[in-house]
Amino acid sequence: MCDRLFNHLNTFPCLLRKLAKVEPAVKGLGKNRGLLKDIKKKLDEKNSKTGQGKKASLNNCLDLQKSSSNNQKESEKEDEEKENMWKKLLPEASYLRLKESETGLHLKSPDELIEMAHKYYAEIALPKLVADFGSLELSPVDGRTMTDFMHTRKYFWALMNIIINVELADKLPHVQSLCVHEMIVRAYKHILQAVVATVNNFPDLAAVVASCLNTLLGTPSGDSSDADNACIDTLKWKWVETFLMKRFGWQWKYDSCQDLRKFSVLRGLCQKVGLEIVPRDYDMDSVSPFKKLDIVSMVPVYKQVACSSADGRTLLESSKTSLDKGKLEDAVNYGTKALSKLVAVCGPYHRMTAGAYSLLAVVLYHTGDFNQATIYQQKALDINERELGLDHPDTMKSYGDLAVFYYRLQHTELALKYVYVYSVFLLLGFP
What are the coiled-coil residue ranges (predicted)? Predict the structure, then answer.
């Protein structure tokens, strides 16, 4: 008996250790206690993952900061290189003026500036020019006035293919026609200048120029005996087509030759190369409309910086605006100030001064002062005849306005005289 009890006592510590490993049951939880343990385990895993994520995001932020700092250093290095490039290309005063403009253009590369310029012309400048043509705010009558309008607004003929495309042909047919004729004139100018440059014997110059004009403006007879002239004519138009495509981006069609106004082309060509010819009725439908004796002389043509006054132009615009609104007194004041400003800056015999005289004459005409309006218009006509020539559109407009003023003064004979002169030059200049 004692032995059995001793054995049980020996095994009791082992039982106690086994019971210690078994967790005590908690009343009230039952089977849900296992679910709580799973939830706690998941929360612990989630917290560990969150901690790892924070560490990873912190590392990413550090990497981004390092990359941004590197990018900033690279951009600063590029800006410094661009600044050094412009310092070498531009004078110091020009570079400082560009930098002080606060436009950031001194930090742009030449390619970026070219791209910005093309974007400006395509999206802002040229649509504005087309809108001005459509509203008749600008009304060019020939290639010269068209060029003046474009140069005043800093446009170039190389971009005219955007204006005279097919989409605008229905809206602005007159502008398209002027542009096409001006491009033809510029193409013919290069041919005529190249031909003149090859002449070694000066007495042969008139005959060579006449032959070149016959090639450019004459009409092949179409006979089989005239095959050489037909071949030359085809070669000429192929050259013109290539030149217009490369210079202006304009696709010339051979069928358009039938719509070409040859007298307008001849007038523009003579103005550009300084060619003086005999004023007579030339038969452009013949093979050789020009003869050696038709060539009178050639004068040098040079380009110069046009004198202008920004203040005078602003005053002229204010005078026009006041006239449109019916404020005649303000229009007279602005016009008088503009005239005095332009006379002081450009001189008494300048085309802008003539424009100021003409505008002030129109304003005075609306106020009823016909005598002073006629005096100012006569001065504008004298300046235009001297500076621009008899067949210039501004000169012809001066003839027409002066005819109206004389008619209001009941000088019918003088009015009819200026109307006749206006009609003759209009037909000769723009057939």
Answer: none
